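Help! Submission page says 'invalid entity' but I think these are all valid:
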Amino acid sequence: MESCAVMSERKIGEHIIESCRQGDRDAFRLLFEAYKDKVYSIALYFFSGDEALAGDVTQQVFLKLFTKIEQFRNEAEFTTWLHRLAVNCCLDEQRSRRRFVPFGDAFKLNEPRERKSQEAAFGQSEVEDSVQAAIAMLKPKLRIAILLKYFEELSYEEIALALNCSKGTVASRLNRGHKILARRLGHLRAALIRGE
Amino acid sequence: MFKQHVTRELSAFAHGELRDDDSRRVSAHLLSCDRCQKEFEEIKFGMRLAESLPSRTAPASLWDGIEASLRRETSEKNHPHTSSTSSMYRPRLFFFADWQRVAAVCGVLLCVISAGIWWSYKHATRSAWDVARLEGAPTIDDDQFGAQGSLRVGQWLETDGASRAKVIVANIGQIEVDPGTRIRLVKTRLTEHRLELARGRLHAIIWAPPRLFFVETPSAVAADLGCAYTLEVDERGRSLLRVTSGWVALEAANRESIVPAGGACITEPGTGPGTPFFEDASEAFVEALAQLDFEMRGTKGEAVPLNVMLDEARPRDTLTLWHLLSRVEMENRSRVYERLAALAPPPAGVTRDGVMKLDEKMLALWKDHLEIIWIQESIPAVRKVWRSVWEQSSH
């Protein structure tokens, strides 16, 4: 049964990609609709909730995807290719922004929330905002590993392929990421339990 | 003794990314290492934080920008149409183009539907546990399955009087479901796996770290602390927990009973978890405890069964006495304290006054010292007194 699912995934993927290769705009649209929210979410959280930048990066990812779709090798999983593309776009954009933005400036807007009194009642959206801010403050390599794990639900092996590193490195980055989040957001422990 | 800490492996462990032998090694280490346990709590908290972020929907306008770019690129690549094309053929070409477009849209729609079906299937299987039929004809949501089945979130697995089944609990353990049992998969995610046991009996072996696996019963929730145990629910919604390895916590209505290997605990709807006891306790001790927990708790009459228990208590029964400190009336607490202190003197930092005031830190400190007795003493032949108490009160 599991293998049937995998087979159908491959067939659907190949069929759509073949249509894309032939310039089928509707097939492009289908690919876009299927993956846009995941790519956008990753970009949005990677760039500290900057919607405009996340939109730009998402467009870049899909434009590269469509213009280079002929390079896609059948033996490689299409999704791995997409993940790598998304990762590279995010990291490239981050690097280019660093040339112009002093390190840390991008996150200053989120810092006041960190200083909120512990007695303040955190709503779910406030928890989300704080988590978003804390994720944005992680080093890019840790941040992207966390985002691929929780938005793409990738295995360590798949993350390793997308990041071009070993599974051990993925495990180490996620471990560090989790610990940093827990340390920085320890004051949300009660709010998170209440929200369940 | 040198201990190889496992802090670097904790995320991989929680995500089920370790090999079985590594997973067992980490699990065993966690049971005995406070430092790694604390670290694991932090990791799990970090995971819950990351899980709390919702997926965001990309603005629909993004496609417009992409399409415009694609159109521009296409028009740059294509040669302009020559004027030599005969106008009389144009309608036919347009018709052909329209027909192609309709076909393409149909094809795409078909793909979308297929992708939707596949997506649903994939997500359904991700949130499902494998089930194997061991005997008879167990059912999932009233449907029989062959040798193997799949239990999804919200579905009921039921065994009749002649059937049994085995359920693989994600990547953290397994349970065997006895005849006459009804269970439902409530939740399965990285940081929490939860079952409901409506009636019947299950045997669980969990190699996960503490508090990843929970079983809800009508009268309490069993929280796995890394262990093997049997949990049974009768027709009245009462439950009986027997722990064969590790620890289990029974929780309900702000009351918690910690049950170590060799221990058992009875719960009742409306009352919650009773006081845990060792299965090899004396018959008089167990019967008196049943009276105290479910007939006389909070009444002046509780002194009668309590007297029996204090007389019968052995060092190992400090498990029960320690739990009773916070459960008996004030006037009886000092008597429980005296007996407990006689059997296992409180460590430095634990005072009589503090215990009488139910100082949480002192109670926890004393419990840490008592745990050595609860864990180290060998279990003599089980006398099954608890079983007769359980069965008698079920009728």
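Support: the input was valid. A stray whitespace character was the problem, and the output above is from the cleaned input. The longest strand of chain B covers residues 192-206.
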